[in-house]
């Protein structure tokens, strides 16, 4: 383009065009990375989960290491203890669920029977034949869709296979992250140009610090949510109080909406088992716990770990849920927190302090500096 032709274009248009093609390139890179991650989700998701679990367990491994316990033994003890607690909790919850389901089924049967009587004897005055025909329609629908149900069972079997494969990858990746994560990171940094290794190294440490703070804070918030709702359900004698509290604990790892969505299941159980008054009380309990989380726990605990606007949290969870389901919603916020801290560190003004660089361009500070929160 000649100089006169270029000058004929308004400067704002030229700037907009320059921004546009650069944004298109960035969008294309993000899209390609997303497609690759989607294709390799059996590997990417377990590695991401292992990174989050290492953020939770690594401070404990370092604590044992500083007190003279061999690092391999420290990793083994932390993993063994964690698996024992998880297996014991799941076993106890499953036993409680098995013991409580028959009573809940009986109560559901009574509710269905009373509903049928109300439909026949109440203001609707439906006939027994109409109600029976509805039941027959449901049965015929199940029979007609037997093939779909079978294919669904096959899909479930395939999903179980993927779960076991993912668990295997998570376990071994977690072992290597806990035992030699710093060496892995320093090796990764060597792929960057030598003049930026210091900054990339510091950005990675900052991102992992935010991940440690996020996991710790989320664990504490989820525990408080589960204990509060579990105690309330137990006081009201709602069936399956402990399994429901456990679901709330797991759901609370999805910020803002996880505990509410899993708590609605407790409202449904209370409605079926105890009536609408207990259901309203349970709903009020969930709202109260959610307000405690939003106005007390999140600012005091989570606010010190990560500083992300609530709108970014909601949009991140929604996008992660659309792209990768429950796992995407679970990993969305820690991913945003990690990227936010890394970008802040990379774009921070000022250069690192002058010091004698190591042979590979990475400072040889104390190893625990990479994992201790600020």
From TrEMBL:
<feature type="transmembrane region" description="Helical">
    <location>
        <begin position="312"/>
        <end position="339"/>
    </location>
</feature>
<keyword id="KW-0813">Transport</keyword>
<dbReference type="InterPro" id="IPR002549">
    <property type="entry name" value="AI-2E-like"/>
</dbReference>
<feature type="region of interest" description="Disordered">
    <location>
        <begin position="350"/>
        <end position="374"/>
    </location>
</feature>
<feature type="transmembrane region" description="Helical">
    <location>
        <begin position="20"/>
        <end position="37"/>
    </location>
</feature>
<keyword id="KW-0472">Membrane</keyword>
<keyword id="KW-1003">Cell membrane</keyword>
<protein>
    <submittedName>
        <fullName>AI-2E family transporter</fullName>
    </submittedName>
</protein>
<feature type="transmembrane region" description="Helical">
    <location>
        <begin position="275"/>
        <end position="292"/>
    </location>
</feature>
<feature type="transmembrane region" description="Helical">
    <location>
        <begin position="219"/>
        <end position="242"/>
    </location>
</feature>
<keyword id="KW-0812">Transmembrane</keyword>
<feature type="transmembrane region" description="Helical">
    <location>
        <begin position="43"/>
        <end position="61"/>
    </location>
</feature>
<dbReference type="Pfam" id="PF01594">
    <property type="entry name" value="AI-2E_transport"/>
</dbReference>
<comment type="similarity">
    <text>Belongs to the autoinducer-2 exporter (AI-2E) (TC 2.A.86) family.</text>
</comment>
<feature type="transmembrane region" description="Helical">
    <location>
        <begin position="248"/>
        <end position="268"/>
    </location>
</feature>
<keyword id="KW-1133">Transmembrane helix</keyword>
<feature type="transmembrane region" description="Helical">
    <location>
        <begin position="159"/>
        <end position="180"/>
    </location>
</feature>
<feature type="transmembrane region" description="Helical">
    <location>
        <begin position="73"/>
        <end position="94"/>
    </location>
</feature>
